[in-house]
Fold these 2 entries.
Entry 1:
Amino acid sequence: MRYDVSFADLQVQPLAAVDLDVPAPERIADLIGPAFDEASGAASRQGIALTGPPVAGYLPGADGWRVTVGFPVAGVVSPEGRVHAATLPGGRFALVTHTGPYDGLVAAYAAVRDYALENGFACEDGWWERYLDTPDVPAPRTEVLVACHPVRPHATAP
């Protein structure tokens, strides 16, 4: 699959979020659905509007993954159960939209990292995903966002 990767300067976005410690990647799908429901439910009960599609941030660790899942919101959510206020970070990101099964996202990550390196940037550890469609869509769209920083002096994004 060919990917059209680009850079974007993103603003910090407040989130209604749930943090998950996931020991193995195959467990992620079972855990994030209920966490999305918790986050959207808490925002709704608090009268805070959702302002975008669901997101998940992934940070690999020695014992699995730290996953932050939630929704961009129009205010700051108060703690409720596992739900807390968090942010989708701002800054320079390389991003691409993957269309198809989630197990094909590995190629999208590789395309993002290659593009960043070719343009004088390195990717930070971890990444974010925006789920533009529900999982029941035959070919769901997932936007992959990876924070980047310049590694060459005066590197500028195309």
Entry 2:
Amino acid sequence: MPRQLDEAILDRLRYDGPATWTDLAAAVDAHPARVRRRCGVLQDEGVLRLTTGGLYTVGQSNRPETNAPSDANGTSGRTAASD
């Protein structure tokens, strides 16, 4: 079911352009909290981007990636192989 909502959100943004999550909720006939949550997930996945004005657009997310754990030195914990 979330994927159907995701597709409806993405279709709306592709067709009509940037929108707030409240505008998206009205356009796709879904509860605003649910649309806001799905927009957050799509943003984390890099599918949506939140602009400065609070509008969602289709494109690369502006949230920082948090996939690689870092140590106290700010590195990813990888070490160079020595010969």
